[in-house]
Design a protein that fits this description.
Blueprint (H helix, E strand, L loop, with lengths): L12 E2 L5 H7 L9 H8 L9 H5 L6 H9 L3 H11 L3 H7 L6 H4 L1 H6 L5 H15 L13 E5 L3 H12 L3 E6 L7 H4 L10 H10 L4 E5 L9 H7 L2 E4 L5 E2 L13 E3 H9 L9 E2 L1 E5 L3 H13 L3 E5 L11 H9 L2 E4 L2 E9 L2 E13 L2 E12 L2 E4 L3 E2 L2 H5 L24 E3 L11 H22 L1
Helix pairs in contact: 2-4, 4-5, 4-9, 5-9, 6-9, 10-18, 14-15, 15-16
Length: 455
């Protein structure tokens, strides 16, 4: 459901609020890449720590001191091989990972000086150099004759397929959408990965060989778990989260321009011309995570005059990192904490504002504190989290937790024999690209061991 550009009420929503040159600048690279000299200077700042805390903080355990040393020695392709051997999506992770709360937060220079080595940019420098060669640095093993089905062409599924292909197994990915990449393709802010980087990284991974992708195939609609388990030697589920949470307020479904932020970001990510995207003059975003920040900042960069994020708890409780919150504020987004929506108001059948009440914590629980206020809005975005659709999975005999997420062990094995899972769909995950890649990698290792044990 996109924004109604000619609303039936009085909402001020239209495309082309900014000229194309300004939009191009606004949606350019958030972090411009380092050139060779800058990378050399930055790499020289690394202490190459023994038992490096940055490596311990990386979910994929990239040998960060080694790859930085390789950059310092003028060997970016060697650095890329070090990175990609641990994280085949090192290029995207360098762009979208919250490095400020992972490897860079753990950097000893951060503790000593408040200025960590820019690990993410150095990682991007190396991986981009490798991708520019057009060559995959790893070779497949001899074909094993084993076939593995993978459901979902997001980071977990792609990482699993790549590792399985290197081990000599054939991987077939079933993806319900038209493109591969998952949230990297459809769900992140356009300025974090411009120039079709998500698609280029997918093509790089598929160049490994031994991986087939079937688009437009949905689990439970076009194929069942039972079929996959019969037809393949193993199955990996990387299905992500199937739906989004709702406010449960009257008007949420009926009023025009009350929009699911995830759906709008997907629409924006696939847009060929930002000048054709309608945007409201006054935008309200309900939520406090990365999606809320992404849709708020992008609305501002599309030309919205006022954008307000309203979150039910304190700013310090927001899932969006401090860097993301600062990004929002430096882009002119207002963050109003300690308030929750109690009504969506409309003029005719179009949203015109949201009524909020102030909140507070009482005995560890969130309660209303009275003092209602209204924020006028031409567009209201809901960004209150995604949820799993566990019904299809559980019908296949797979145990899920109370939230519908799949329960797995340390090797990403599910409760069903011959079936593994990883990424956002599993219980206890971090909901990060880098952790999904690690899930896929670890599952592939476990699958490979299981298949070899059967031979």
């Amino acid at each position: 459901m996109g924004i109604v550009s000619e609303p039936r009420g009085i909402a001020d929503v239209k495309p082309g609020r900014l000229d194309r040159a300004t939009l191009s600048d606004n949606f350019g690279d958030l972090h411009p890449p380092l050139d060779a000299h800058e990378a050399k200077v930055e790499s020289d700042r690394c202490y190459f720590c023994y038992d490096a805390p940055c490596q311990q903080a990386c979910p994929t355990s990239i040998d960060i001191p080694l790859f930085i040393r390789e950059i310092a020695a003028g060997n970016p392709l060697g650095a890329a091989e070090t990175i990609l051997s641990a994280n085949i999506m090192g290029g995207m992770c360098a762009r979208v990972c919250p490095t400020e709360t992972l490897c860079e937060e753990a950097c000893v220079r951060e503790a000593a000086e408040g200025k960590p080595v820019r690990i993410g940019l150095l990682q991007r420098h190396a991986v981009d150099a490798q991708m520019a060669t057009g060559k995959m640095p790893f070779s497949r093993a001899a074909p094993s004759g084993k076939r593995v089905a993978i459901v979902g062409a997001g980071p977990a599924g792609l990482a699993c397929a790549h590792a399985l292909a290197l081990a000599g197994h054939e991987a077939t990915i079933f993806e319900k959408l038209e493109k591969s990449g998952g949230l990297n393709e459809y769900g992140i802010a356009a300025y974090k990965a411009p120039d079709d980087f998500a698609a280029r990284e997918v093509a790089f991974i598929l160049s490994t060989g031994g991986i087939a992708v079937k688009h437009g195939v949905a689990l439970g609609r076009d194929v069942s778990l039972g079929q996959l388990r019969r037809d393949y030697d193993a199955v990996f589920l990387g299905v992500g989260l199937g739906s989004t949470n709702k406010l449960g307020l009257p008007g949420e479904k009926e009023l025009a321009n009350v929009i699911d932020a995830v759906e709008y970001i997907a629409e924006l990510r696939q847009a060929q011309d930002f000048a054709r995207l309608p945007v409201g003059r006054r935008v309200v975003v309900i939520g406090g995570g990365m999606t809320a920040v992404d849709v708020a900042v992008q609305s501002k960069r599309l030309g919205a005059e006022s954008v307000t994020i309203v979150y039910r708890r304190g700013v310090e409780h927001m899932k969006a990192s401090a860097f993301e919150r600062e990004l929002a504020q430096t882009n002119g987004v207002v963050i109003r904490p300690w308030a929750q929506p109690i009504a969506i108001e409309g003029h005719g059948d179009t949203a015109s504002g949201v009524l909020f009440e102030r909140t507070r914590e009482e005995g560890g629980k969130l309660v209303g504190a009275g003092g209602a206020f209204r924020i006028e809005a031409d567009v209201v975005f809901t960004a209150i989290g995604q949820k799993a659709d566990g019904a299809t999975i559980e019908s296949g005999g797979v145990r899920c937790d109370s939230a519908g997420r799949i329960v797995v062990d340390a090797e990403r094995r599910t409760s069903a024999p011959g079936l593994w899972a990883g990424g956002d769909c599993v219980s206890g995950g971090l909901d990060l690209t880098v952790s999904a890649v690690e899930d896929g990698k670890q599952a592939a290792r476990s699958i490979d061991a299981a298949l070899k044990a059967k031979s």
